[in-house]
Structures are given as structure tokens and as C-alpha cells.
């Protein structure tokens, strides 16, 4: 990979940027030169080939400041471009490690002081327990398939059903991304923390959570955050005290298992209420940062293809039941049948994530190690796995790799075995190995069930009554995993004729006969 920069483009970048960015640039540049001088080592013949910047020394750094997520670099970085090697890297998580960078980024993001930072970074020898290993276990345990997840699903879906039931028969205009953002954020807060919670009491905090999300990459750099990331900085200061109040009032008794078990682990390792509260903004953010953009694009893709809407309605109708109770007509969508009976909408979900979950996984190399017995990776280096690129590789997915074509997931069985295997390996929107996203089951349910109900029961159109289009994605900021639209999409939503007076509900219970 080579990136070119003319002197003019560098000058124009610097003059267009604010002075804090300029100072950041000078400091980072100086450090880089020193580090480069101190750290320059010969490349071992067993290592992968080196990609040098066009502009000696500073080319990669300019790339990082200018292109954020599209350009990650430090002293030594290995970019994994083959799905097979990506899985090998995920498997070798003991040496090709996420924990170090995750611990560092989490502490910086929420501005932990020395005490909490020491707790997070504590790594006992011989793999004994630590706060981070306990946290990992508790989070994966509470989001794994089973009764806790069913309860979480049912909490979030009840909330989302309320949002859909509020839609009237007369068409109303909604800014689609903002509407989804607000409903999912409030729904996640209600699910995680119970009611009342800080966001249900003050919905203005939704804005704070997303300001934090927007500035996350810069907050992690921790370079005068008050100036370089003013909104994210302010958001942290607003959200921490309201969560302290929440814990001090004992409202955490209404929280779901994930929040309760996280708290138990935190207390065991000596974190204070203030420190636990500092981290909450990152939890609400994690619950929505991928869910909202993917729900948005899934809706846009579907409603931009009228034939697809018709086919989906036929499929979804089969997993609903209609009843009248106390004079109220209710339509229930049976969640347990989604995956087994609705291959088309599941394919739409997979295809949306394939195109839209573009962020890279980043790892650090803890000791010299052979990747898949093929390449030597040196201690201290970084490994970047650009999963998004692998998911749209023409060689793997064919000439329509960049287009939305859910059928590809329905016809995979008819592909030659090696092509099928390559596609399975290249598809990793939830990462892989030890750090495979624990929220993936929840994400599937809360996105697919919501979109299914929207497709079956509602008409969506542009403000002038036309079909939706798929808006261009925004510039990918540092740390962003899923693409959001550059501009929001104003749409009209109304109930379909046959569902004008019904109450919608999600049935999270047993299979319908
Ligand atoms: C479409 C939605 C989602 C996508 C595409 C997604 C994707 C990912 C990916 C790729 C990772 C691994 C990062 C890496 O290895 O570098 C990850 C980790 C994580 N995700 Fe998700 N995620 C989604 C939804 C959720 C939800 C709803 C939650 C629930 C609260 C969640 C919680 C987490 C957590 C806690 C981790 C960190 C795991 C660890 O400590 O290693 N995610 N996610």
C-alpha cells in the first residue's frame, strides 16, 4: 500500500486545520523522528515486506492525522491482507494481543486516573485472574445465548415496539438516522440500567453519548482533549456524575445481568463508584455505535428496492400471529423463528454488515512470533486487520463485491467449495477469536427484529413519496467501526392499511405452532 502526498496537500491540510491540530502535528512529528531514530532496526528476512511512506519519516503520520481510520500507523505495523492469516492472527491471541491496546484505549477514553488505570493494566504472570479477565468472562457470560440474553432481548425489543407503536396513520417526517439513534440509545439505556436511568430522566444525554462516540478516536490520543475533542470531553464530564447518582441511589438493582456482573467484577478489584460511573458512557456507546449505522443502512437498502420489500413481507408475515385481546388487536412477531424461517432478511443483515462494518481490528505483538508458521512478527509491532477490505475483495466476492446483493448469502451452497470457504473466511463483521463480539446475538435480534416489523407494518418513503436511496457514507474517523451516513435522510413513515389500528409486540418466548 502506498499513499502519496504533495507538499501542497500537506500545507493545505495544516492551514485548514485548527491550531491544536497543528501543535499535535508538530509534537507527534518530533516524537516520531526521535522514535524512528532510536527504534530503526533492520527488517528480518522472515518478516513480511515493508511498506515505506513516500515522504520519508513523516508520510505515515501525515496519513494518520489526515485520514484517521483509513490510515493507522506506528513504528512497525503489519497489515494482514489475507482472510486465512487474519483468522490465524485472531487465533494467536496470546501473543497477537488485543488486551493491551483495549486497556490503554479504554482508560484514555474515559479519563481514568492512576488508580483505575493500574487496575485495568494489572496483568498477573501465568494467566491468573485480573480485573480484565474477570470482566471479559462476565461480559461474555451475560451476552451468551441463554436466559440472560433472552431477558436482555425482551427488554430492548419491548422498548423498540413502543417506538413503532407510537407511529401514526398520518404520514410523519423523521430524520431516519437521528430517529434510530435516539430510539436505540434510550432502548439500550433502559435495557442495561432499567428504569429510571440517567437517560430516561434526561434524554439530552443521548447527544452526550454520541458526542463521546464522535470524539472517541481523539480522546484516546489524550492530547489536550479539552481543546482537541471539546464535545467528547464535555460529554464525559456530564455523564459521569449522573451515573454516580444512579449508583448512589441504589437504582442499579434494576440493571440487567451485564451491568450487574460488570459491577461485581469492578468492586472485587477495588474500583470506586466514581470509576465505575466514568466507564458507563463507553458501555452505552458500545451498545449503539455499530447497531445504529447498520440498522440505518439495512433499512435504506431494503426500502430502495420495492421488489425486495414485497419478498420480505411475504417471509416475515409467516412468523407473525394476530390476536384480539380486550378489544385491542395485536400482531406479534415471533423472535425465536427469525433465524430459522427468515433467510432473506437474515441475508439482508449479513450483506449490510459486509458492506458497512468496515473498521479494522488492531492488535499488538507481545513477543516475537510466527504468524501461521509463515511470517515472523516482531515484539512491540502492531498488526492491523482491515476486515472491511476483506469483506469487499473482488477476488473473493466477485465483480459485484461492492454492491448490495443479499442473494449471495442464499446461494453460497451452490458455489465451488473453495470459493465458499474463501467467502466464509473473509466475512468477519464481528471480529474473531477470543475477542469475537459478545454482543453479536443481541445485535442480530435488535436489528433484524426491528427492521422486520418496520418492513411488514409500515410504508417508508422520501418526503416527496419516492422510494428511499442509499446515502453516501461519511468520512471514517479514527476508531469508527461501522459507517454512518454523511447526511441524514428525511423520510416519511406511515402505517400500512392492514395494520392501521394494531398494537405491535415482539414475542420472545417459545416457537409458534
Ligand atoms: C452490528 C452490531 C455490532 C457489530 C458489527 C460489532 C462488532 C464488534 C467487533 C468487530 C468487535 C471486536 C473488535 C476487535 O476484535 O478488535 C466487537 C467487540 C465488542 N462488542 Fe460488538 N458489535 C456490534 C454490536 C454490539 C452490541 C449490541 C454489544 C452489546 C452491548 C457489543 C459489545 C461488544 C463488546 C463488549 C466488545 C469487546 C469484546 C472484548 O472485550 O474483547 N457489540 N464488536
UniProtKB/TrEMBL annotation:
PANTHER family listed in its UniProt record: P450, PUTATIVE (EUROFUNG)-RELATED
Coiled coil: none
Highest rank taxon of the organism: Eukaryota
GO MF annotation terms: heme binding; iron ion binding; monooxygenase activity; oxidoreductase activity, acting on paired donors, with incorporation or reduction of molecular oxygen
Cofactor(s) demanded: heme
Keyword hit for tRNA-binding: no
Gene: CYP8B1_0
Membrane-spanning ranges: 21-39
Membrane is among the record's keywords: yes
Entry's family note: Belongs to the cytochrome P450 family.
Keywords carried by this UniProt record: Heme, Iron, Membrane, Metal-binding, Transmembrane, Transmembrane helix
Protein name: 7-alpha-hydroxycholest-4-en-3-one 12-alpha-hydroxylase
Residues where heme binds: 437
Pfam families in UniProt: p450
Classification via InterPro entries: CYP450_monoxygenase_sec-met (IPR053007), Cyt_P450 (IPR001128), Cyt_P450_E_grp-IV (IPR002403), Cyt_P450_sf (IPR036396)
Amino acid at each position: 500500500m502506498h499513499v502519496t502526498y504533495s507538499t501542497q496537500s500537506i500545507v493545505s491540510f495544516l492551514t485548514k486545520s485548527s491550531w491544536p491540530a497543528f501543535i499535535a502535528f508538530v509534537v507527534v512529528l518530533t516524537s516520531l523522528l526521535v522514535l524512528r531514530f532510536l527504534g530503526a532496526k533492520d527488517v528480518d528476512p522472515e518478516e513480511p515486506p515493508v511498506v515505506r511512506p513516500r515522504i520519508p519519516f513523516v508520510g505515515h503520520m501525515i496519513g494518520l492525522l489526515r485520514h484517521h481510520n483509513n490510515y493507522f500507523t506506528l513504528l512497525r505495523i503489519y497489515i494482514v491482507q489475507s482472510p486465512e492469516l487474519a483468522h490465524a492472527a485472531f487465533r494467536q491471541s496470546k501473543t497477537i494481543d488485543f488486551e493491551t491496546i483495549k486497556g490503554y484505549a479504554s482508560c484514555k477514553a474515559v479519563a481514568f486516573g492512576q488508580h483505575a488505570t493500574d487496575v485495568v493494566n494489572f496483568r498477573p504472570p501465568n494467566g491468573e485472574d485480573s480485573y480484565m479477565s474477570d470482566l471479559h468472562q462476565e461480559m461474555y457470560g451475560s451476552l451468551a445465548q441463554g436466559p440472560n440474553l433472552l431477558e436482555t432481548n425482551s427488554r430492548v425489543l419491548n422498548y423498540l415496539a413502543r417506538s413503532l407503536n407510537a407511529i401514526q396513520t398520518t404520514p410523519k417526517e423523521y430524520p431516519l438516522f437521528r430517529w434510530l439513534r435516539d430510539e436505540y440509545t434510550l432502548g439500550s439505556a433502559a435495557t442495561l440500567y432499567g428504569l429510571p436511568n440517567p437517560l430516561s430522566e434526561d434524554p439530552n444525554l443521548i447527544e452526550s453519548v454520541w458526542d463521546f462516540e464522535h470524539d472517541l478516536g481523539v480522546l484516546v490520543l489524550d492530547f489536550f482533549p479539552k481543546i482537541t475533542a471539546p464535545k467528547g470531553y464535555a460529554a464525559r464530564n456530564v455523564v459521569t456524575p449522573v451515573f454516580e447518582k444512579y449508583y448512589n441511589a441504589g437504582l442499579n438493582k434494576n440493571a440487567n445481568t451485564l451491568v450487574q456482573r460488570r459491577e461485581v467484577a469492578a468492586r472485587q478489584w477495588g474500583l470506586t463508584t466514581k470509576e465505575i460511573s466514568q466507564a458507563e458512557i463507553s458501555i452505552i456507546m458500545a451498545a449503539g455505535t455499530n447497531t445504529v449505522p447498520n440498522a440505518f443502512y439495512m433499512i435504506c437498502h431494503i426500502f430502495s428496492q420495492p421488489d425486495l420489500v414485497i419478498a420480505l413481507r411475504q417471509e416475515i408475515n409467516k412468523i407473525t400471529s394476530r390476536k384480539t385481546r380486550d378489544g385491542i388487536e395485536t400482531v406479534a412477531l415471533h423472535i425465536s423463528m427469525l433465524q430459522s424461517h427468515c433467510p432473506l432478511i437474515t441475508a439482508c443483515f449479513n450483506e449490510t454488515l459486509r458492506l458497512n462494518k468496515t473498521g479494522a481490528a488492531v492488535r499488538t505483538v507481545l513477543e516475537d512470533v510466527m504468524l501461521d508458521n509463515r511470517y515472523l512478527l516482531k515484539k512491540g509491532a502492531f498488526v492491523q486487520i482491515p476486515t472491511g477490505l476483506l469483506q469487499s475483495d473482488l477476488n473473493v466476492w466477485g465483480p459485484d463485491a461492492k454492491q448490495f446483493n443479499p442473494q449471495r448469502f442464499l446461494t453460497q451452497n451452490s458455489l465451488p467449495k473453495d470459493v465458499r470457504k474463501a467467502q466464509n473466511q473473509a466475512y468477519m463483521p464481528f471480529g474473531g477469536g477470543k475477542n469475537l463480539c459478545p454482543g453479536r446475538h443481541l445485535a442480530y435480534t435488535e436489528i433484524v427484529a426491528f427492521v422486520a416489523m418496520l418492513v411488514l407494518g409500515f410504508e417508508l418513503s422520501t418526503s416527496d413519496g419516492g422510494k428511499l436511496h442509499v446515502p453516501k457514507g461519511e468520512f471514517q474517523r479514527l476508531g469508527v467501526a461501522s459507517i454512518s451516513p454523511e447526511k441524514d435522510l428525511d423520510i416519511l413513515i406511515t402505517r400500512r392499511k392492514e395494520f392501521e389500528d394494531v398494537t405491535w409486540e415482539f414475542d420472545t418466548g417459545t416457537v409458534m405452532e
